Amino acid sequence: MKPSIKFTQCLARWAIAAVALAAQPAGAQGGPPGFAAVSVETVVVKYAPMESSVTAVGTIIADASAMLRAEVPGQILTVHFHEAQRVAKGDRLFSIESTVLESEVNEARANVNRSEAAYERAQELQQKGLISGTDYDAARANYDVDQARLRSSTARLSKTVIRAPFDGYVGLRRINVGDYATIGQQLVDVVQLDPLRVEFSVPETLLAKVQPGLPIDVRVDAYPDEVFSGEIVAISPSSDIQGHNLQVRANLPNKELKLRPGLFVRVNVTLGARENVILIPEQAIWPIGQDKTVFVVADGQAHMRVVRIGERQPGTVEIVSGLDVGEEIVTAGQMKLYDGAAVRSVPADPAASE
Question: Read out DSSP for 123-141?
Fold first, then answer.
């Protein structure tokens, strides 16, 4: 088995330190008098504010989307829209040939009128005691049945006009004027483009931090220089068993209609800002095996110290424990150091730590 790259790097660092120690007289600490001190770049540990965030990848979805289908068979007589047109709820989109259904409605209405008159006569005769209760109930039942048939035929007739179910934009139609539509055949989709939703996942360890109301920033490849802002509206009540992730949904305004459902997005969730956090330049961290160490400069000597790190930001690392404010740490030149090496501090270039 080949040794890992990290293990090989650690061996090299300890070898350099061992050679430097062997070159010194026995008992030397930081080199004997007159021994040249190593020049290193250093910074002083300070408190700084830190904005916590988490990044994820997700997908844009429509807040409302529907594929309209034919509910009654018939020939398409009229298309009332242009593709990609904005429509309002209730606008007509298609008209289907309805001659047969109109005849059924007229027949049902005539039957209702006839049975209604019979029912009214039965009421008069029943009040005078001239007909039995059975005959009266039959007249009433006939009237109720005819009314139900009229409502049913009227409902079928109404389905010959396909209307927009909500405000949105129509897509590409799947049928032309003159085509015969069958029940269930796709006609056109209607999509709401403002607002949109974003769905993404975060690790379940962030359950206490990711909450509804937190702001998000969204980037898409189609507009690489733009950032779209949204807000988390809901978090799944259960965690994904396989990936141990939480499904998150956010609201994403789209007034300029630049975004579309289905786009792949990169999401940044702002978890909140913290004050008085110890942040140090990332290059100050010196890995030794599984430990994360830094060299602390005190009285002209560099002392290796194990630290525990927290969150990372571009160029900086949070130190949870192991360092105190006011201490001086090495940010460049660690390859030449060992615990107790004599050093000469040179202030770090601020631009190099950005």
Answer: HHHHHHT-S-HHHHHHHHH
Q: Which residues contact 6 (CB under 8 A, 6 or more apart)?
A: 287
CATH value at residue 289 = 2.40.420.20
Query: Would you tell me the crossing angle of helices 99-128 and 133-158 to the nearest 10 degrees?
Result: 160
Q: What are phi and psi of 352, to 5 degrees?
A: -75, -25
Choose the final residue of a domain: 122, 156, 191: 191
DSSP secondary structure code for residue 166 in this structure: S
C-alpha 344/C-alpha 297 separation (Å) is 9
Digit-coded pLDDT (tens) for 2-48: 444 444 444 445 454 444 444 443 333 344 444 578 999 999 999 98
Predicted structure pTM score: 0.66
Across 79-100, average pLDDT = 96
State whether residue 233 is helix, strand or coil: strand
Element (H, E) at 142: helix 133-158
